[in-house]
Amino acid sequence: MTDETAWTIPSVAIAVDLAVLTVQSGQLRILLVRRGIEPFLGALALPGGFLASEDEDIDTAAARELAEETGLASEQLHLEQLRTYGAPDRDPRRRVVTVCYLALVPDLPLPVAGGDAQAATWVPVDKVLRRGRALAFDHKKIIADAVERARSKLEYTNLGTAFCPPVFTVTELRTVYEIVWGQRLDPRNFHRKVTNVENFLEPTGEQSTKNGGRPAMLYRRGSATVLYPPILRG
Amino acid sequence: MTDETAWTIPSVAIAVDLAVLTVQSGQLRILLVRRGIEPFLGALALPGGFLASEDEDIDTAAARELAEETGLASEQLHLEQLRTYGAPDRDPRRRVVTVCYLALVPDLPLPVAGGDAQAATWVPVDKVLRRGRALAFDHKKIIADAVERARSKLEYTNLGTAFCPPVFTVTELRTVYEIVWGQRLDPRNFHRKVTNVENFLEPTGEQSTKNGGRPAMLYRRGSATVLYPPILRG
DNA sequence: CCAAAAGTGTTATTAATACACCCATGC
DNA sequence: GCATGGGTGTATTAATAACACTTTTGG
Predict the structure, then answer these.
(1) How large a percentage of chain B has pLDDT more than 90?
(2) What is d(CA B75, CA B10) in angstroms, rounded to the nearest whole number?
(3) How much is the pLDDT for A2?
(4) Which ranges of A71-225 would DSSP assign to H, the alpha helix?
(5) Cis peptide before B229 (omega within 30 of 0)
């Protein structure tokens, strides 16, 4: 930080945008809102906004936006800073630098479209990334970065469990991996791997009999947040 | 991004700070400047500054600051965004959000203290992180994040070579790993690992005879930027 | 010759992969 | 019983770890 004085500092607006990912109906999906004003009127965009006040912390702003859009508080959910995007022409109106956050959430009943928030919808990321028309600003690039971050974090952390309900089976967790990575995993080897890593899964003692076949053990997320050795995609 | 209009947007200053790491004299070191004004007068701080103009891209601003401080251009050097720090009270004067960048550079002749830049010095990160007094703002935390990012990136990328000169030996590269990780590595296994990964190192055909003992083959950084399987710290 | 550093070979251990097989439920 | 999904055992392969040993220089 240099010693330049305040009068030399250009005026720049700071926004906070959210890339909220979930696994729903066998797809990796992202929460998007339809823009109601120009620019990019009618285009899909990441939910977000400007700081609520000059005193609001940016992490707090992200958590607030997330609660407004999904109704979720910070428990059973993961929120981390992704990256800051600050190309000078990314917003045609004025200079806006946006601090983007990545959130991983379980399959929610639905995003509640209430209050002043726009109606939000879950959109498959495959569709967004392949035919990326109708995406506002540089949000397609942001989504690509968010998805890559999520994919890589599944390799060496327990964040796959953020997509699961509080109590889940090994198969549910494996399905999350398969959907996020777009790749089949051997059920038997995956089972052994995640159950052998110390404190990765915490057995509840309960069983799930929801599907046909032999009942599955139910687990909670364990205390181990890192997975060593990692599960590599290959 | 919401549809709030500009008059609701709080005014926040955006800074760009640099965590420039190098390996020098057997230590991992970071480039720091001594502050000449309040607040934190006389304390060590990361080099950085505000955007040069309202039209300057933040990545460009980081590259410009880096060139000003080190004289290095973007070749034979790595520069990536680290994280954005935006706690409301991190600067007592006014609200400042800083976008921090991580740079990895080879052992330079010296940082040139010329023009309007303050005199910069290389400070061992161990010293900074252990007895972190005299660090301005939240820069100690930023440095800790930068070091952890650098350490983890050595595991699965070729960024260790960013600390090396354009042409280097396997032993020089291993020494970089040992210093950054603070851990000894088996010379033989390391050699086999990095020379076996396809396109990780590009042989020059030349040999180095600088040290005693058998001359070492000289390599350039290869085209492979990711290391699979990774070299894990354990 | 000796010391020092570079590099190869070899073995043991560990982890990943592939797949046969058994287990426990619903119907 | 039979289909279905859950879970274990095991052989194969690949990667890591540990270390003996050879190579090539300088003195």
Answers:
(1) 76
(2) 38
(3) 47
(4) 125-130, 139-156, 170-181, 187-196
(5) yes
- Decide if B210 contacts B172 (C-beta within 8 A): no
Q: Is the CB of A205 under 7 A from strand D?
A: no
* CB neighbour list of residue B95: distance below 8 Å, 6 or more residues apart: A54, A55, B10, B11, B12, B13, B88
- Using a CB-CB cut-off of 8 Å, the residues of chain A touching B91 are 1
Summarize pLDDT for B33-71 with one digit per residue, the tens: 999 999 999 999 999 999 988 899 999 999 999 998 888
Nucleotides in D strand less than 7 A from protein CB: 3-9, 15-20, 23-26
Q: Which single residue has its CA nearest the C1' atom of nucleotide C26?
A: A212
Convert the pLDDT of each residue in B62-106 to its tens digit: 999 999 888 887 777 899 999 999 999 999 999 999 999 999 999
- Provide the CA B184 to C1' C14 distance, Å, integer: 20
Phi, psi angle pair for B6, to nearest 5° = -60, -30
Mean pLDDT, to the nearest integer, of A33-45? 93
Whether A195 CB is under 7 Å from strand C: no
Burial of B29 (0-12, 13-18, 19+ CB in 10 A): buried
